[in-house]
Amino acid sequence: MSLLEDLHWRYATKKMNGEKVPQEKVDYILRAAQMAPSSSGLQQYKIIVITDKALLEKIKSISYNQSQITDCSHLLVFAAWDGYSEERISGVFNYMMDERGLPHSTMDDYKNTILTLYATLGKDWEAHHAAKQSYISFAMAIAAAAEQKVDATPIEGFLPDKLDELLKLKGSGYKSTVLLPLGYRDEANDWLVNMKKVRTPQADFITEMTLADAADVEEMPVMPSLGSFTRK
Ligand SMILES: Cc1cc2nc3c(=O)[nH]c(=O)nc-3n(C[C@H](O)[C@H](O)[C@H](O)COP(=O)(O)O)c2cc1C
After folding, report:
1. How many other C-beta atoms lie within 10 A of the C-beta of residue 126?
2. 3-state secondary structure (DSSP) of residue 79
3. Are 73 and 27 a contacting pair, CB within 8 Å?
């Protein structure tokens, strides 16, 4: 099956049947999530995997009682950094340079540039920026699950503050962003399973533009070239 066929097969499963997903499929989905690109390669998020039924019951109670939380096989909780710091960013870049056999200082100019930029944007922006990166990983997990014929329901319908408290994320530097229960559809009891998949018509979704369609912006800022920070 092609990726497009897999994406047509998948849907936001409303009723799961409780069947276990084999560990190798879960590992494959987690690996795909780990391979997601992220801004500056920081991977400013992580995934918490939960199978404990008693804990899942508690999470369901703060997730509008959505049954997929307890009928799934594995619940993936995506959690992103609550902000940036020199220590956090250096930690990632130093590890990257060690893996590539390069001196830690290789990324110093780039690191200082992003730290200076982030400082002007504020802590809320930082948390939001990190959360957006976690959604890219989340989308990779959704696509990988579809490829493995594992059902997955994207879930934003939960109380993040309460979940952060329950999972001891408060004070850890992470905030929960989104949930992904993995499991198998309960064909007989899921009202959505045979519904037509509906998307915005292609003509409305995709716009092609040329300079003739663009605004006549007189003054464009002069920007430094990013490559000069990353290449030595
Ligand atoms: C970020 C995000 C949050 C969502 N939250 C929920 C949710 O809490 N519960 C739910 O049943 N579906 C949720 N959905 C599923 C969407 O409603 C669904 O993906 C959309 O209607 C398209 O349908 P499809 O995924 O079946 O193709 C969410 C989807 C996304 C991407």
Report:
1. 19
2. strand
3. no
Query: Left, alpha or beta for 168 (phi > 0: left; psi -120 to 50: alpha)?
Result: left
Integer-rounded Cα radius of gyration of the chain: 21
**Contacts (Cβ under 8 Å, ≥6 apart) of 214:** none
> Strand 74-81's sheet: what is its strand order?
45-50, 74-81, 174-183, 151-152
pLDDT digits (tens, 9 = 90+) for 9-21: 999 999 999 999 9
Say yes or no: CB of residue 154 within 6 Å of ligand 1. Answer: yes
CA angle at residue 162 from 157 to 166, to 5 degrees?
115
Q: For ligand 1, is residue 146 a contact (CB within 6 Å)?
A: no
Which atom of ligand 1 is nearest the CA belonging to 197?
A: 27
Span 87-126, pLDDT tens digits: 999 999 999 999 999 999 999 999 999 999 999 999 999 9
Q: Which atom of ligand 1 is nearest to the CA of 158?
A: 8
**Which domains, and CATH codes, for the chain?**
3-198 (3.40.109.10)
- Taking Cα atoms as reference points, which of 34, 64, 61 lies closest to residue 46? 34
Count other C-beta atoms under 10 Å from residue 8's C-beta. Answer: 12
CA of 165 to the centre of ligand 1 (A): 24
**186-10-164 Cα angle (round to 5):** 80
